[in-house]
Design goal:
The structure holds 2 protein chains of 2 kinds.
Chain A (H helix, E strand, L loop, with lengths): L7 H29 L1 H16 L2 H16 L2 H16 L3 H31 L1 H16 L2 H12 L3 H26 L2 H9 L4 H36 L6 H11 L2 H28 L8
Chain B lengths: L1 H17 L4 H19 L6 E7 L2 H17 L3 E7 L1 H11 L4 E6 L5 H8 L4 E5 L2 E2 L2 E7 H7 L4 H5 L6 E2 L2 E8 L7 H11 L7 E4 L4 H13 L6 E5 L2 H5 L2 E4 L8 H8 L19 E5 L5 H9 L2 E2 H14 L3 H11 L1 H4 L5 H11 L2
Parallel strand pairs in B: 1-2, 5-13, 8-9
Antiparallel strand pairs in B: 3-12, 4-12, 6-10, 6-11, 7-8
Helix pairs in contact in B: 1-2, 3-14, 13-14
Chain lengths: 289, 353
């Protein structure tokens, strides 16, 4: 027996009214939103240009130095250099730089928005109750559902790509920040109160430093999810490794698919291991728990 | 061992649904498994007809119409295989499957496919599946009216009206996404018209979804938009896009086939030209039954009918399958001419159920 669904006309009219409402909204506000986010577009373009213009050896030296500073691991440094040399050899350098640019900027945006939201959730039960289901929604809704409205509002290119990436990738950093702060030993917070510290100082001097490793774990997850989204983002005109994957899918090029796919994997592993190595080095923080 | 394991899996599924299993069932099941294995190894003997469900509106609707008629009219077993132009033709050339490429835009197939058709490895059973279909460059009608942009050359003189999303000092022309054969046309025409020197930059839409949403978004905001699209499509109708051709007209197959349609590196000296009028055809792999071939040979429809169905399905937010069914319901006068009376009667009996 069929479920007593609404009749076809009603359902169609509901769908159409959603369409019409959104079109109306896009036509009135599209320009305004594009204008609002144009600084972000400028940053994305400049950062990508910078990475592409930088000679490869300069990039390897500078990024290698940064990686050493953060992780202090010879194995990792070697892995980084050899995988990027391989990426360069198979002609994926520029696309890898493009992908790195959008992932770095997206992660930055996610952190800037995500950490304050996470703190708010940790401090305020009501905020947590409202935001948690929204995060669930962001992580589970199929990305194609919001890709179309995002392009209609912002047009094709990097900014809509960044928005699509952030919708999917921001939840971990928010969740982990919330969790990290809620989980720390309350005795230490009380000590802060006893010392007469203001809430802002308790946050900056006690809570964030103690929750640091958990938050970094969240950032790590965010980077991984951003990398996973680059293929989807390439469907709305973000060039990079993702568009090579799309190219491979569209043409049935197995080799190109493997090479570009593995380049994404290499980026992911290097970033993941770097943050993990960093966390391990600072593991002593955990002893305070 | 291999067979055993498959039958075993089959038993479990069967038991779940029926709770009883006779020797006859096992035998039938075994035979069908065996048959499907043979299909995998030699697709020519396939008793399931594989129809390419193409990834554009009219293509997927026609695939669904074919599926409906072959299933309900002729009693064949059909399977729809998703695919685009390139993926489908490559797969047909390599493996002979899918069997039917219903709405093949023959000018987009590339040279090797033409060779396969010429030497009989693949068979083109008809041309003009959709009468009046074509692709080309478009601008919104309000841009055309306001600025008198009637040709590609008119548009190219005004990059300022079509700012590129990432570099507003340049004009932006949207071309096909990666993996579509028209991507090469876009790249080569960009060079042929010397667009870079005229202040233009390519816009990569990334995917078909991106291309649609680009046109949709620009027209909603009444902004400039210039680039690739094709007809018959609901989008051209709904957004009132106006086609712009080159004032030179179509400059011949020599330039189009040997340069504009090949990879950028192989096209040394591209010349400006309009798009050719695209001929749509139906291409099949050998080994199909005669009744299927005679149906496909008879099947053709006007672009306006296709557009009408596409607008209907847009209006109803219907799937390609719904659109095919609506076509079967409302255009009996048309499809009756494609099939023998007995087949038509069988389909009508199913439709009236």
């Amino acid at each position: 027996m069929n479920f007593p669904a609404l009749d076809r006309e009603t359902i169609t009219s509901i769908k159409k009214s959603i369409d019409a409402t959104f079109r109306e909204f896009a036509s009135n506000w599209g320009e305004w939103f594009t204008e609002l986010l144009s600084p972000l577009q400028w940053i994305l373009i400049q950062f990508e240009n910078l990475l592409i213009v930088t000679p490869w050896y300069v990039f390897l030296i500078l990024t290698g130095a940064l990686l050493w500073q953060v992780a202090r691991s010879w194995k990792l440094l070697l892995g980084f250099i050899s995988s990027f040399v391989l990426i360069g050899l198979v002609g994926m350098w520029d696309d890898t730089m493009r992908t790195l640019a959008i992932v770095v900027v997206s992660t930055f945006v996610c952190i800037v928005i995500g950490i304050p939201v996470g703190i708010l959730m940790a401090k305020n039960k009501l905020a947590q109750r409202i935001i948690l289901p929204i995060l669930d929604l962001m992580q589970t809704i199929p990305s194609f559902v919001y890709l179309i409205p995002v392009i209609m509002l912002f047009g094709l290119g990097k900014v809509p790509g960044l928005i699509a990436i952030c919708i999917f990738a921001i939840p971990p950093v928010i969740r982990f920040t919330n969790l990290g702060i809620r989980e720390i030993n309350q005795d230490l917070v009380e000590t802060g109160h006893a010392l007469g510290l203001k809430p802002m100082h308790i946050l900056a001097l006690i809570e964030i430093p103690l929750a640091r490793n958990v938050i970094l774990g969240g950032i790590n997850q965010t980077v991984m999810m951003a990398l996973a989204m680059v293929v989807i983002a390439s469907m709305i005109g973000v060039r990079g490794l993702g568009s090579q994957v799309m190219n491979a899918i569209g043409n049935g090029y197995l080799g190109l698919g493997v090479i570009s796919g593995l380049s994404i994997v290499a980026l992911a592993i290097i970033i993941d291991r770097t943050i993990q190595a960093h966390n391990k080095r600072h593991d002593s923080w955990r002893n305070y728990k | 061992m291999h067979y055993n394991s498959i039958v075993h899996i089959g038993q479990i599924q069967y038991n779940n649904t029926e709770n009883k299993m006779t020797g006859k069932h096992i035998k039938r099941f075994f035979m069908s498994m065996l048959a499907s294995m043979i299909i995998v190894t030699s697709s020519a003997q396939a008793d399931t007809i594989k129809i390419a469900e193409l990834n554009w509106q009219s293509g997927s609707m026609i695939a669904n119409i074919d599926a409906y008629i072959l299933t309900h009219g002729y009693g064949h077993k059909v399977e729809l295989i998703p695919g685009g132009i390139d993926a489908t033709i490559q797969s047909m050339m390599a493996t002979g499957s899918p069997d039917i490429f219903g709405e093949a835009w023959t000018s987009l197939l590339g040279e090797s496919a033409q060779e396969y058709i010429a030497n009989g490895t693949l068979i083109q059973v008809r041309d003009e599946v959709v009468v009046g279909a074509g692709e080309g460059f478009y601008v919104p009608d309000y841009m055309q009216e306001q600025y008198g942009l009637n040709t590609i050359e008119d548009v190219l003189a005004r990059p300022d009206l079509f700012p590129h999303p990432e570099d507003s000092s340049k004009g932006g022309i949207v071309i096909c996404p990666e993996g579509w054969s028209c991507k090469k046309h876009g790249d080569n025409l960009f060079r042929a018209f010397d667009m870079e020197a005229k202040g233009w930059k390519l816009i990569d839409p990334g995917s078909g979804t991106g291309l649609n949403a680009f046109w949709e978004g620009q027209v909603i905001k009444t902004k400039g938009a210039f680039g690739y699209y094709w007809t018959p499509t609901v989008l051209v109708g709904r957004l009132s896009l106006a086609s712009v051709a080159s004032e030179l007209g179509y400059m011949g197959d020599e330039n189009w086939v040997n340069c504009i349609s090949v990879a950028v590196e192989e096209c040394v000296n591209p010349q400006p030209t309009s798009f050719p009028l695209a001929a749509t055809g139906t291409i099949v792999a050998p080994g199909l039954d005669a009744d299927v071939i005679s149906y496909l040979t008879a099947r053709t429809m006007n672009g306006s009918v296709v557009t009408e169905m596409l607008v209907w399905s847009d209006d109803q937010q219907a799937t390609a399958e719904d659109a095919a069914l609506e076509f079967m319901r409302t255009h009996a006068d048309l499809w009756e001419t494609w099939v023998p009376t007995s087949v038509a009667n069988r389909i009508k009996a199913v439709l009236s159920r």
